[in-house]
Amino acid sequence: AKDLHHSCQWGYGIRWGDGSTDTGMQRLALSEEDKSVRNWFIQTMKDLKCQITVDEMGNIFAVRPGKRTDVPATFIGSHLDTQPTGGRYDGILGVLSGVEALKRMDEMGLETEGGVGVVNWTNEEGARFPVSMISSGIWAECIPLSKAHGLKEVPTVASLPTAASAPETMKSALQKIDYLGSVPCSYKSTPMAAHFELHIEQGPHLVSAGQRVGVVTAVQAYRWYRLNVIGRDTHTGTTAFEHRADALYAFSRMMVRAREVAKSRGCLASVGIVEAKPGSVNTVPGTVSFSLDIRGPETELVAEVEKELRKDFDGIAAEEGAGIGKPCRVEWTLDFDSPAVKFHEDCIGCVQDSAYAVVADAPVADTKSLVRPIMSGAGHDSVFTSKRVPTSMIFVPCRDGLSHHPEEFCSADDCATGASVILQAVVRYDRK
Amino acid sequence: AKDLHHSCQWGYGIRWGDGSTDTGMQRLALSEEDKSVRNWFIQTMKDLKCQITVDEMGNIFAVRPGKRTDVPATFIGSHLDTQPTGGRYDGILGVLSGVEALKRMDEMGLETEGGVGVVNWTNEEGARFPVSMISSGIWAECIPLSKAHGLKEVPTVASLPTAASAPETMKSALQKIDYLGSVPCSYKSTPMAAHFELHIEQGPHLVSAGQRVGVVTAVQAYRWYRLNVIGRDTHTGTTAFEHRADALYAFSRMMVRAREVAKSRGCLASVGIVEAKPGSVNTVPGTVSFSLDIRGPETELVAEVEKELRKDFDGIAAEEGAGIGKPCRVEWTLDFDSPAVKFHEDCIGCVQDSAYAVVADAPVADTKSLVRPIMSGAGHDSVFTSKRVPTSMIFVPCRDGLSHHPEEFCSADDCATGASVILQAVVRYDRK
Ligand SMILES: NC(=O)NCCC(=O)O
Ligand SMILES: NC(=O)NCCC(=O)O
């Protein structure tokens, strides 16, 4: 936990309390702050005598060798980048629990069969470059390298001091901070025996049930889109409603409709980015671009919400501007598609056994009730590693279930519990 | 008309046709392009032997002396700034008709009793600095100078190449282009006998009725607000709808509601600028800022729409986040208030007589039917001059009633008709 807050000195964000660590984080992927924490991470792992590999997506792999050199290492992984108004735990806890695990293993003089590694994945958040988990996606060969290298940063964060005036691509940003490695980004070049990830839940289930550990068995499906609504710029003071093709009004109706449709199917739909052009008080916006994030427990449900919204958005667009025979149009681009995932039985088993062991001393009658199988609402790099190697995750509670917010918080106790569980899970897996 | 398109070489915008003049305009107030056209305007007026005055808002007054020096000049005025996606006629036609009028008077060797002036008002559009007609407002002593000098450019146009990275104030922008004059901006320092303004209608009435001239008798009321909706940033993938205080969702409902309420009272309500923060695909926006422009034929109607929307927006905000006991809040700031205006009988009379005279040769039975009394939906600098001196306006038709759009268009014939009417109106007024 000391290390965790130490690592947060690079890129701390909005202050919410008086304590020295009561701030959020603003460490966008491949920013100067991200560079600093990467440098710190590599130095720390070198001090722990790890072998370091940086691949062509800037993923950093640090391996503590085991007895055998003919098998790949078992990894603990997550990410050190954050949302623009993020917290100190999302991703960071996962990487730091890996650092902590290796320190403990050294203290205990523990030798493992295979090696044990820690990986920091690049741009997991998808906040600066709008595809989440993109670098584990390339490692898993589920996303082509060219797509990632050419991906541009989003305009909203491009105005942050971390970004250049012309939008950077991932490749130019990697070069800028000297993290464009030469090793191919692939599970073939940097193999793993398994991938474990510790994360705050980012939702309210554990905390509201008073439970201490979530054994993550699955991750819900999600898709990210970029939409453009194209209408017609015109004067706000002289143009009757019937004569407008107001792209922002159409957007507003779409956003209201998206919640309705998603709700009716037990899904979520959210807009995080919106840009209206030309952006003048007295000009009706003729162009609106926005992001749409649809999620649901099953891949098919997300597809159904999309289908229904495509129809409804077309209908809304057609109505706006019909009076002048120039209705709005709407264009969809699918940026990212992450089907629902089930984690590996073996890894889930290791996590569950470890969780039971760690909470066994708790002062309650049925300690196992403190552990709960859970589905993840958020995406994680484990989604992509699971396509290639046995994978699972551990959740610990966070205050109010709040995440992607500066006040995101996980108690030192809960961090420690999670770190113990992941250490045990890795050791158990290594012994199998 | 040649001069008009000549003056459009500084800051032409989006191309919509093949002709050499088939482009829109992007000449934001106090930009480099605005500086160039101002320099051209001053040189042109000096060549016409006018006396030039630049005041502390950068308003440029050019006066052709009359026989008497003890009375103020009668002015033709409008503005050379445009919307970010504006056209070649809004404002520009008005100033250029003044240049044309003075040229004609010289050609005809016409001597007037008082002088005749042409004025270019600064930032009429309110596109870069979000208070329209601000400089005529200061001249009329209806707006304090300090408010204008401290006014910041809007963030949406601040990203245009014309603007600096940190938002400029009007004062810093005036200094930057060397147009911060020393003469006080006041009707006392730069008096006028009367103010006439030629403008495209910017609406569909003249063009759809096949009429040629609008005699503007009044201007509708409008108010501009800046609103903030404050909710809570949170994760899009893990936060149930009931647990959200989604400021952008609340905004969307507000925009839909604004149209409903405005419509029910024969008013308009429009949002031209919206900004959602932090602006990341997978973070529910906790803060949204937007502009609201409410207009109506009577000042009271605009006030009623505002009152109803204040209630409704509070209700919408209260619902969003109620599930977590942290509802959204909404804050209103009134940036600009322009009550309904009636122009001066004498000026209206001069315009009407001139309009009848100019269309008298038209090949229709009842030529007077080509002239129509009309209320302006848009604001104009004449709104503020009318508070201090007799004022009225002339409208000419524009294609499809379209304005604040690159394809804004007024035929050379209609421009010429308008220019003839304003020249006659000024001469008639001078002779009174
Ligand atoms: N854990 C997390 O916040 N990841 C970002 C990807 C997502 O949007 O779910
Ligand atoms: N004429 C014109 O477009 N003026 C701008 C002020 C307004 O929004 O009405």
TrEMBL record, chains A, B:
Keywords for the protein's UniProt record, in alphabetical order: Hydrolase
InterPro entries: Amidase_Cbmase, Bact_exopeptidase_dim_dom, Peptidase_M20, Peptidase_M20_dimer
Residue span(s) of domain Peptidase M20 dimerisation: 222-315
Source species, domain of life: Eukaryota
UniProt cross-references to Gene3D superfamilies, sorted A to Z: 3.30.70.360, Zn peptidases
Signal peptide stretch: none
Pfam families: M20_dimer, Peptidase_M20
GO MF term list: hydrolase activity, acting on carbon-nitrogen (but not peptide) bonds, in linear amidines
CDD domains associated with the record: M20_bAS
Keyword Ribosomal protein: no
Keyword Hydrolase appears in the UniProt entry: yes
Family label: Belongs to the peptidase M20A family.
NCBIfam families: hydantase (TIGR01879)
Record's protein name: Peptidase M20 dimerisation domain-containing protein
Organism: Penicillium cinerascens
